[in-house]
Amino acid sequence: MDTPEEILEFYKMYRPSPLIRAYNLEKYLGTPAKIHYKFEGNNTSGSHKLNSAVAQAYYAKKQGITSLTTETGAGQWGTALAEA
């Protein structure tokens, strides 16, 4: 199934998250591998959670659901759902 255009448009506000090369970690490990990590700092919730919360909110709205709740610990899911 293709991602709906509305979701892709929302993602443009904070994605794509840049890949960062972990040069110091590579050096510390003494590895020939090239290690990269995703930087989610441009994402308001500070994690990948907004990526799925947007889709959840989108499909809930299409089904006529007018409110959503989530269980949260550090607040990332709550923040992501509120933004979505």
- Average per-residue pLDDT, rounded, comes to 85
The proportion of residues forming helix, as a percent range, comes to: 40-55%
Radius of gyration: 17 Å
Structural class: mainly alpha
Low-confidence stretches: none
Shape: elongated
User: How would you write the strand order of the largest sheet?
Assistant: 1-2
- Largest sheet data: 2 strands, antiparallel
Q: How many alpha or pi helices?
A: 4
Order of helices and strands: HEHEHH
Distance N to C terminus: 21 Å
Number of strands: 2
Give the DSSP E fraction (strand runs of 2 or more residues): 5-15%
Verbal overview:
By secondary structure, the protein is mainly alpha-helical. The protein is 43% helix and 7% strand. It is built from four helices and two strands. The chain has helices at 5-11, 23-29, 49-62, 76-83; strands spanning 19-21, 36-38. It has a two-stranded antiparallel ribbon. Helix 1 packs antiparallel against helix 3 (49-62) and helix 3 packs across helix 4. It starts with a helix and ends with a helix. The model has no long low-confidence stretch (mean pLDDT 85).
Break the fold down into its secondary structure elements and pairings.
Elements: H1 5-11, E1 19-21, H2 23-29, E2 36-38, H3 49-62, H4 76-83
Antiparallel strand pairs: 1-2
